[in-house]
Design goal:
heterodimer, A: 417 residues, alpha/beta, Rossmann fold, 7-stranded mixed beta sheet, globular, B: 336 residues, 8-stranded mixed beta sheet, 8 strands, binds thiamine diphosphate, binds iron/sulfur cluster, binds magnesium ion
C-alpha cells in the first residue's frame, strides 16, 4: 500500500512486518526515528510479542542482540557513525558467531570533528567485519532490503547491515509502497537457527580456537559470504514475484548500453547521478551509471560484467581511506584490474557536503576528456586549504584546524544566500 | 545408585562436614545427582579458587533451575581453562562472546526467552552470567550496571581473584591496596597497588536497589550454595560476588586456597553479607577474629610489606580497612 511516509518510519514498519522478537535501541542521529517508531509499535502492542530494550550503549545494543540471537530470537538494532564504532568489537563478534542479526546503519560521518551529516565512513570502517552490507538507493529500496536482509542473513547464518543515507533518506518523506503482513510472511519463513542455546541440547558457543583451525574458520566465513552472491539475485527474484516490484540484487545498471563512461556509486547519490546522466544522454553523451547495492561480499563478477564495455569508470564515493584515496574505488579497481579501463576516484559529499548536479555535470565532462586526476576531491575549497597550510607554516601553535577553517568560511547562518 | 547411610562424628573444627548433616541440608555437590555443570578435565591451575567457586555456583543454580539454565561467560581464566575447542567442560548451554559485554549478552538471552515464553515455547529456563573481577568491575561495568538498572532477569556471578589473572596478574579495580601485581610492582620499596582507589562492586550493585546482592567465599561452600539458591528464588537482576583465591596470582601454595579465603573472611577484609532490595539483611559473623596480617603474610603479593622491613604503616591501613568492614557490616558480636 502506498504511503507518504518518512524513511525511518517506513523502515520501522518494514522491520515490524518481519516480526522481530528482540529490538535493542540506543539513540544516535540520524537513526533515532527508526527505533522510536519501533518503541511505539511495541508499546502499543502492534508489534507483539517483542522485547524492546533500552540499553546503555551501542556496545550493549549489539551484545544484547548477540545473546538474543544465540537463543534463537530474531534480533534487530540500528545505529550510525560513532555508535557503530562504539560497538565495533561486537560487530566482529556477531559475524564470527554466525548470528543473523539485522542492523540498520543510518550512514553518518565519523568524528573528529564531530559531524552528524551523511557520508559512508561509518559502514566503510567496518566493511571487513564479516557482515553482509547492503546500500539502499531510496526509501523504497531501504524498506525492501530490510525484508530481504532477514531472509538472507537467516539462511546463511550471517549478520546483515542495511545502510541508508542519514537524513537524505532517513528523514525524507516520500511515497513508499509498504508491503502487507501476508506478503512478508510468504517471503520470510520463521527463523530456524543452526545453533541455539537450549538446555535440551547443551552446546558451548564462542570458545577459543587456535592456529590449528582458525584459518579454516575464517575461510568458511568468506565462503559463506561468497554464497550470498548466488542467493541475493535469487532472493531478489522471489521478492519481485511476491511483492510485484524489482528490488535488491547485486547492483543496478542505468543506461550503460553503449556507454564509454560509467559512473559507479552507492546509496542515495544515485538519484542525482541518474538525473545528470539523463541530461547528458539527451545532449548526446555516451554515459551511464552503476549503483552498487551489495558492497560486502563484493560482487566482482557482476561489476566486471556491467563495466567491461566502458572506456573509463568514475567511482564517486562518500568515504575516504586517508592516506590512500578511495575505498569503493579500490575495490572497483581490483575488479577491473585485467581490463583496459581507466578508473578515476572521486571523493564527494563528506560530512554532508551537497553533491550538486552542476558539479557532477562538470566532473563527468572532464572525465570524458580524460582530464581528471586519478584522485579528485569534488568541490574541495582549495583556497581554504591553502590558507590553513600557510597558517601552519607560519606558526606552530596555529590553533584547531576545524575552527580556523570555519572562521575563514564565516558564520554560515549569517551568510546571505 | 544405592546409598548407604554412614554415621560420622565431628572432631573439633568449625567445618561442619556434609556427612554430619541430614541429607536435605547437604550441598548439591555432595549429592550423587549433582549436575557437574563445570565438568572435570579442565585446565585450571591446581588449587584454583575460581574453578571451585564456579563449580559450586553453577551446579547450585542448575539445581534451582531444574537443569534448565543458560550461562553467558566473560573472557578470562574461567572461559579459557574450561573450553578450548573441541573440548568443553560445560554441561549446560554456554556462550562466550566478549570480555566486556557478558551482562548484556545475558540480557539478550533473558529477553529472547521472555518472548519465546510468551509464544508458549521454551518455558522455565533461567539465565546466569559470570566473569572475573576485571570483566565485571572494570571493562564489563557499564553493561552490568545497565543490566542492574533495567532489572533484567539474570543472576550475575563475579569470581573475584583480585586481578587480571588470565593475562598474567595485572591490577584490576578489585585488586586490594598494597598488593603487588605485574602492573603495580613493589620494586625499590614501592607499595604495590595504591590505597584509596578501586571499588567494591557489591556496594555499587546494592545502590541499584536490585532484588538480591550477596558476597561469599569458597571457604564456606554451604553459604555459597545457599546464596545461589536464595538468588534463584528472585526474578530480576541479582548479583553474587565470590572471593576466589588464586594460588598463581597471589603467591601461596595451591593447597591453601580455602585457608586464604577463610582468613580473608575471618579478618574482616572481605565482608560476607547478603542484601535484598537495597538493604543488607544478613552478615556472616566472624567466628574467630584474626589480624589482617595473618591473611597477608602467607601471600607473595604482599611480601614487600614484611621484608626487608616491616611496613607498619601499610599494615595499619589495611587493618583499618578490615575494622571498617567489621563495623559497617556488623561482623563481630560487639558490633551488633
Ligand atoms: C577488550 C579486551 N581487552 C582485553 C582483553 C584481554 N583479557 C582477556 S582475559 C583478561 C583478564 C581477565 O581478568 P578477570 O576478568 O579478572 O578474570 P580472571 O582471568 O582473573 O579470572 C584480559 C585483560 C580482551 N580479551 N578483550
Ligand atoms: S591463574 Fe588463578 S584464577 Fe586463573 S586458573 Fe590459575 S589459579 Fe585459577
Ligand atoms: Mg580476576
Amino acid at each position: 500500500m502506498f504511503e507518504q511516509i518518512e524513511g525511518s518510519r517506513a523502515v520501522a514498519k518494514a522491520v515490524a512486518l518481519c516480526r522481530p522478537e528482540v529490538v535493542c535501541a540506543y539513540p544516535i542521529s540520524p537513526q533515532t526515528h527508526i527505533v522510536e517508531a519501533l518503541a511505539e509499535m511495541v508499546s502499543s502492542g502492534v508489534l507483539s510479542p517483542c522485547e524492546f530494550i533500552n540499553v546503555e550503549s551501542e556496545f550493549a545494543a549489539l551484545s544484547v542482540a548477540i545473546g538474543a540471537s544465540a537463543t534463537g530470537a530474531r534480533s534487530y538494532t540500528a545505529t550510525a557513525s560513532q555508535g557503530l564504532l562504539y560497538m565495533a568489537e561486537a560487530v566482529f563478534n556477531a559475524a564470527g558467531l554466525g548470528l543473523p542479526i539485522v542492523m540498520t546503519v543510518a550512514n553518518r560521518a565519523l568524528g573528529a570533528p564531530i559531524n552528524i551529516w551523511n557520508d559512508h565512513s561509518d559502514a566503510m570502517a567496518l566493511r571487513d567485519a564479516g557482515w553482509i552490507q547492503l546500500f539502499a538507493e531510496d526509501n523504497q529500496e531501504a524498506v525492501d532490503l530490510h525484508i530481504q536482509a532477514f531472509r538472507l542473513g537467516e539462511e546463511l547464518s550471517l549478520p546483515v547491515m542495511v545502510c541508508m543515507d542519514g537524513f537524505i533518506l532517513t528523514h525524507a518523506v516520500e511515497r513508499v509502497d509498504l508491503p502487507t503482513q501476508a506478503q512478508v510472511d510468504a517471503y520470510l519463513p520463521p527463523y530456524s537457527p543452526r545453533q541455539v542455546l537450549d538446555p535440551a541440547e547443551p552446546v558451548s558457543i564462542g570458545a577459543m580456537v587456535g592456529p590449528e583451525a582458525f584459518m579454516e574458520v575464517k575461510y568458511l566465513a568468506h565462503a559463506k559470504q561468497m554464497e550470498a552472491l548466488r542467493l541475493i539475485p535469487q532472493y531478489a527474484e522471489e521478492f519481485r514475484a511476491i511483492f510485484g516490484r524489482p528490488s535488491g540484487g547485486l547492483a543496478h545498471a542505468y543506461r550503460t548500453e553503449e556507454a564509454s563512461t560509467i559512473v559507479v556509486a552507492m546509496g542515495s547519490v544515485m538519484g542525482t547521478i541518474k538525473d545528470v546522466i539523463d541530461e547528458m544522454r539527451e545532449a548526446g553523451h555516451a554515459i551511464g551509471a552503476l549503483g552498487i547495492t551489495l558492497f560486502r561480499p563484493f560482487p566482482t563478477a557482476a561489476i566486471v560484467a556491467a563495466l567491461r564495455g566502458a572506456r573509463r569508470v568514475v567511482v564517486l564515493e562518500k568515504s575516504l581511506a586517508v592516506g590512500l584515496g578511495g575505498i569503493l574505488a579500490t575495490n572497483v579497481r581490483m575488479a577491473l584490474a585485467a581490463l583496459p579501463i581507466d578508473v578515476y576516484t572521486v571523493i564527494a559529499g563528506l560530512g554532508g557536503r551537497a553533491i550538486t548536479k552542476r558539479s557532477l555535470h562538470a566532473l563527468f565532462r572532464r572525465a570524458e576528456k580524460n582530464d581528471l586526476d586519478s584522485l579528485t576531491f569534488l568541490d574541495l575549497d582549495e583556497r581554504l586549504v591553502a590558507r590553513q597550510l600557510a597558517r601552519e607554516k607560519e606558526r606552530r601553535k596555529s590553533g584547531p584546524v576545524a575552527e580556523n577553517l570555519l572562521r575563514d568560511v564565516g558564520v554560515i547562518a549569517a551568510r546571505n544566500y | 545408585m544405592h546409598e548407604q547411610p554412614i554415621k560420622f562424628y565431628q572432631t573439633g573444627t568449625f567445618t561442619v562436614g556434609n556427612r554430619l548433616l541430614p541429607p536435605e541440608q547437604r550441598t548439591v555437590q555432595s549429592r550423587i545427582k549433582r549436575y557437574n555443570s563445570l565438568n572435570s578435565g579442565h585446565r585450571a591451575c591446581q588449587g584454583c579458587g575460581e574453578a571451585l567457586g564456579a563449580r559450586y555456583c553453577v551446579d547450585a543454580a542448575m539445581e534451582a533451575a531444574n537443569g534448565r539454565l543458560i550461562a553467558a561467560n566473560a573472557t578470562g581464566c574461567l572461559e579459557v581453562f574450561s573450553t578450548p575447542y573441541p573440548e568443553t567442560s560445560w554441561q549446560l548451554p554456554w556462550i562466550h562472546s566478549l570480555f566486556g559485554n557478558t551482562a548484556a549478552v545475558a540480557t539478550g538471552i533473558a529477553a529472547a526467552l521472555k518472548v519465546k515464553r510468551a509464544k508458549g515455547e521454551r518455558r522455565h529456563i533461567r539465565v546466569i552470567a559470570q566473569g572475573g573481577d576485571g570483566g565485571t568491575t572494570d571493562i564489563g561495568f557499564a553493561c552490568l550496571s545497565g543490566m542492574f538498572e533495567r532489572n533484567d532477569d539474570v543472576l550475575y556471578i563475579c569470581y573475584d581473584n583480585g586481578g587480571y589473572m588470565n593475562t598474567g596478574v595485572q591490577r584490576s579495580s578489585a585488586t586490594p591496596p598494597a598488593a603487588r601485581t605485574a602492573t603495580t610492582p613493589s620494586l625499590e620499596g614501592a607499595l604495590g597497588n595504591a590505597f584509596g582507589q578501586g571499588k567494591f562492586l557489591p556496594e555499587i550493585a546494592l545502590a541499584h536497589g536490585i532484588p538480591f546482592v550477596a558476597t561469599a567465599t569458597v571457604a564456606d561452600l554451604h553459604d555459597l550454595e545457599a546464596k545461589v539458591r536464595r538468588a534463584m528464588e528472585f526474578h530480576g537482576a541479582r548479583y553474587l560476588h565470590v572471593l576466589v583465591p588464586c594460588p598463581l596470582g597471589w603467591g601461596f601454595p595451591s593447597h591453601e586456597t580455602i585457608k586464604m579465603a577463610r582468613l580473608a573472611k575471618e579478618s574482616g577484609i572481605f565482608p560476607v553479607f547478603a542484601a535484598e532490595s537495597g538493604e543488607v539483611v544478613a552478615s556472616a559473623p566472624i567466628r574467630r577474629k584474626v589480624p589482617v596480617e595473618d591473611y597477608l603474610r602467607p601471600q607473595k603479593r604482599f611480601a614487600h610489606l614484611f621484608s626487608p622491613t616491616l611496613n607498619l604503616a601499610a599494615l595499619a591501613r589495611l587493618q583499618e580497612l578490615a575494622d571498617r568492614n567489621i563495623r559497617k557490616y556488623r561482623l563481630l558480636p560487639e558490633t551488633l
